Amino acid sequence: MMMIEPSERIEQRCNARAMGDVGRDNRGMKPDELVAYAYGDTVIKGARIKAPGAAIRSGRTWYHLSYDCVTEHDGLDVKSFSFKLGAAIPTSEWSKHYLVAP
C-alpha cells in the first residue's frame, strides 16, 4: 500500500471503507465494486477525500453514493467516514459513467 501515490492510497482505503459500511448498514447488499468519480470528480485535500458522485455496485445493480472520508497515518487508517446511499442507476447510464456489468 505504501508503494502507491498518497492520493490513490487515500481513495482506495476510503473506497474499501465505503463498501464495508454500505454492506453492513444495508441488509441484503453485498458491494463488490465502487467508482468514486462516476458522476463527479473526487476532491482530495490533504488526508480528506470527498466523493459526491460515486457509484457502488451490489449484485447486478449500481447505486448512487456520496461519501466524505478523513484518513490518518499516510492514508492507511480511516479517522472519520460518512456516506449517503442513493437510488439505483438505470443500466442505460452505466457505460457513460464507467460502470460495468457484473
Q: Classify the secondary structure makeup into a structural class.
A: alpha+beta
Measured distance between first and last alpha carbons = 26 Å
Please compute the radius of gyration using only Cα atoms: 13 Å
- Strand segment tally: 5
Task: Domain count, please report it.
Answer: 1
* CATH topology term: Nuclear Transport Factor 2, Chain: A
Series of H and E elements? HEEEEE
Supply the CATH architecture.
Answer: Roll
CATH class: Alpha Beta
**What is the number of helical segments per DSSP (H or I, 4+ residues)?**
1
User: Which descriptor suits the 3D outline?
Assistant: globular
Overall residue-averaged pLDDT value: 93
Q: What secondary-structure arrangement, pairings included, does this model have?
A:
Elements: H1 6-25, E1 31-35, E2 43-45, E3 48-58, E4 61-72, E5 77-88
Antiparallel strand pairs: 1-3, 2-3, 3-4, 4-5
Q: What features would you describe in this structure?
A:
With about 100 residues, the chain is an alpha+beta fold. The chain contains 1 helix and 5 strands. The protein is about 20% helix and about 40% strand. Strands 1, 2, 3, 4 and 5 form a 5-stranded antiparallel sheet that branches. The longest helix has 20 residues, at about 5-25. This is DUF930 domain-containing protein. It holds the Pfam family DUF930. It comes from Ancylobacter pratisalsi.
